[in-house]
Recover the amino acids of this structure.
């Protein structure tokens, strides 16, 4: 962890990373309901929204589409990933070097570590290399810290997510991307485990505006620094209203209810999430 | 993916790659009916046809025969491959470096990735290295994107081929070579998944002129950019008529029927394929 | 082993290393009773006590917190470690390079070797690389010498701990950190096996002041050179009294009883430990 | 494959490689009947015969004995090998680098590839490295192309040997050393599969002069370029008459019968072999 | 193998290597009866005897103790080794680089190869690297050639030891250290298999002066060049008489009996050994 408040991927101490690596990780099936989003240009367009501090994509998409958006979008190159055609113990191929990411204009790099996997040792050693090389290029490192593997059935339980943020801190990440552990209290503990390192919530599969913004609000109030979101944004035909809402909740620290214009429902939603 | 329309292996935005690595991948058995084609010079002769934008061979053949054809043929060096004497989980040996390929005159390089294989991680990491090194040499990279391995029985079903093209895009290929997924609709989806990256159809085992050209036409009409073909060309005693047909279908965007001089049958054939 | 009496991590030939890598090795659970210690700054504060010759942390914590303490604390960067989410044969990921440790100001480096593990070969080879690189940077190397793995049930029996110190000597460590083998006689043998190399006792899980200081006294009287301690210090709400006691026992070679102000109990305690 | 007719290991387009790596591959047992040949100097003496274009030995023997013969013998350093004390799936240790082989005066290098073995991938990748490095030093590469391993019971059947020569061609060998596939017709096919690359027959275990020379004659008439022979030469107390015979059959293209002075038997022998 | 008669570890063509790596290989248990020898300085003292041409120790011991003896002792750094806490298929960790051995003053390096182990391939490849690097530094290489592993039950039978010396010769060792194969005839064969390379006998576990010197005499008369001895020397309280005896037997080529002052018993002892 180094101070990164001056990084372009941070705005007022917060980050909203628009992720679109699903074509690699999940395959085209994630685009079934919004086939036009198979065109990466459309997602880059979305990333020009002021709420978004960076777009997270794989090397090939960065090479092909970032040049047209380099003035309007900050680029986070995800350095590893795996198809879900492969079904072994969780692991991820390092498919881009830090040097090449820097060359194509990255403002930050991302890397998945599956703590608890039989490949933890190897992934952490790969992380060491990319983290230290990223330091040379002055690029912040975001760890997708996703405990997973033999013996880790429920990977969102509070102790797992707290371990996930701590792992990221100890190993030298600048931001940890973790799943929401189910309650504001658990998220707050996970953020405390991270010390001064930033924690962003992982967006997960598509839910309603209310549910999603409430979870984000809960993350922010727990000490989180924003979110990395994919499907909840680009699987919407028009993501603008949700992005406007995220801007209010994250940077202006409004309640989800206020951001959606129905203040009165906010507490009820919170209670439901924390229950 | 980088813009490659100015590459010598592209003509009017299209590519026809004549592949002859079967001696390594399948063994001499593929030459049983045309033993004279065991002489690589004969296949290089065929590659001088205007329809062909590159010949794809392994290092040893490139070393020995390309010097006599360097003015008439564009060279794509395939950088990995495996004999079928070996019967393990799909994998492929990296048998030529990018540096050496460049030294012997390559205009492009090719690399197989078996997505879904237990060796996917390793192959993708090898691909990273060759892709980034190819960038330094300014050589386009063609990915033989062939999902295969544990749990992937039918490797030409539409969702598999769409995943194959997307994988190639995300990982940074310039052209993806994939199998025909059985229908024009499926091929069109596979091409959409590839964004702006070029997709070429894999020729497969020898069929009739009609069936072959119709499939090629279908690929072109689906947004494909040509084909990589081996046996359907050099297993013919005289490949010229078929190459003439390919030239019409691919560069002039004629129907297969028109290219074969029997326009009336074209729609019927299309229907059969798409059925 | 090289002479290291002039190293900042040694005071009068002795060392007290305050270790705080538990967030990685054990997870946040070790901080359950003292949640405020999840903030690494609090443990760095503790490390400013004169008794402490170095703080041992992982790279990420060193990056984030050492800059505020570089004038008051000596830094030992632990170069490998593993989460306990992972449950395979003992192994440890090399998560920091010697070069990077030096760059962020390390005064020494630490490395775990699990002798007897199925990964012994690999870990010893990693140790070779870090040890030789540490020599180039003039950094002392502390080996966490922890025999563990298939067939090693009781990893604190006297012969195991004696083997542990000898391994560290033969492989080129400057200090071996080993578990207390249960008796003063066994500890003395372990120290003899180490030749002129320094041996420090591993603190282990939290016990009473009396028990802990008596074990430390026993180590010092056996020829040991101090201790590496974590939970027994920072799991205490106010660690100062214990650190004062350690200072007396280790540098002034007082008895544990004298250090605690109840001299008369000292012999009884010793007897209990050695029994 | 590069043109190598000007290489010192080729004479009039042909090669006779005297191999003596049996001490490593088979152990001293191969020298049981000729214990004086345990002295490598004796085999180097034999290699001074005009019929021999190179001696093939391992690094240690080359280091120790070649300096006394560098004016009279051409040196081929075999770069990998394995003892038969080891009994796993066919593999071979790379025991000499190309750079070192060049430094000790090699005129060519040799490398075994077990196509079809579970180690094929790894061996082919090792071959890539040595082949490309050999190109930098201008050293021809001889591949011991020996399909072997899981599922490859009879490793001299015609289709296996034809695959073996083709593999060598595709992977960039300059000469393939293969076993005799049992008939002149099969050997001719194997040579056709090799394109312009040279194929030499592997000598195998000791047989009579008649049988051996007839097989060699058959190889030459099939388009082969000579042989690599060990036991059939140095297991003879006086190898000179056989070497004289090989000179006649290989360079002067005489029949085996003529070379042995009993012309009339030649056709009968041929028939027997081809039967 | 290179000529090494001018090396400091050779005296009149012979070598006596005092080995003390038992603390790593066997653990402190080997010092049970002579605990004072746990102090490496004591063994270095012993190595100052004129009979000893080199002391063989691991890196850590060399670092710590050789500086005090560099004028009186020649240093052989053993570059690999493994604890017997680990119980897998025979293997050995490379725990010191050639470069570092040279830096700390080594006159020679040593390396174990377990021919026949499932790790033979890997160990031979490691040997290649250290052997070639040792050539650059002008350091002789001693191979501990110890066939061992799956299927190798009796690792001192004559054919195994002969294979062991041959392996060392073919792979480029300058001296092979092998176990005594049980008879003078077998040792003589093992030496013949080594060509011009030197063979030294491995001392093994402690025996009587008579038995030990007789075996050494047998080795010398068989063409051996000395011995590498550990326990038989330093497990004796006063090793000087035995070292005097070794000096007589090895450099002056006296009989064991004469060396011990009881000439008449010599032949009988010989007969017993060879029986």
């Amino acid at each position: 962890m180094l101070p990164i408040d001056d990084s372009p991927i941070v705005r007022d101490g917060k980050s909203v990373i628009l992720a679109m690596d699903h074509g690699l990780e999940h395959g085209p099936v994630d685009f079934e309901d919004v086939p036009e989003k198979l065109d990466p240009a459309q997602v880059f367009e979305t990333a020009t929204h002021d709420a978004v501090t960076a777009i997270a994509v794989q090397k090939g998409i960065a090479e092909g589409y970032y040049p047209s958006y380099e003035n309007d979008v900050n680029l986070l190159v995800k350095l590893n990933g795996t198809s879900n055609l492969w079904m072994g113990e969780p692991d991820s191929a390092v498919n881009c070097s830090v040097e090449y990411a820097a060359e194509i204009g990255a403002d930050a790099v991302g890397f998945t570590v599956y703590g608890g996997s039989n490949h933890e040792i190897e992934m952490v050693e790969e992380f060491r290399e990319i983290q230290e090389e990223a330091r040379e290029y002055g690029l912040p490192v975001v760890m997708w810290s996703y405990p997973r593997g033999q013996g880790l059935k429920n990977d969102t339980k509070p102790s797992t997510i707290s371990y996930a943020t701590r792992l990221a801190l100890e190993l030298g990440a600048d931001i940890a991307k973790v799943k929401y552990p189910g309650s504001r209290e658990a998220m707050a503990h996970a953020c405390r485990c991270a010390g001064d390192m930033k924690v962003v919530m992982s967006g997960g599969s598509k839910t309603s505006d209310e549910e999603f913004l409430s979870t984000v609000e809960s993350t922010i109030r727990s000490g989180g620094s924003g979110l990395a979101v994919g499907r909840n944004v680009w699987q919407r035909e028009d993501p603008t209203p949700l992005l406007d809402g995220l801007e209010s909740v994250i940077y202006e620290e409004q309640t989800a209810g206020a951001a959606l214009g129905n203040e009165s429902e906010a507490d009820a939603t919170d209670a439901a999430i924390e229950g």
